Amino acid sequence: MLGLRGPSRPRPGLLGGRVEVAARAAVTARTAVTARAAITARAAIGACLLAAGGAAIAGCDQPASAAPAIELGSASIPQPDVGGTTDAFLVIRNNGPANRLISVRTSDGGRVAFRAPAGSGSGMRTVPDIGIPARAVVRLVPDGPHLEITGAGPMRGSTLITLTLVFARGGSFAVQAEITNPQSGGSSYF
Question: Domain 70-184 carries which CATH code?
Answer without folding.
Answer: 2.60.40.1890
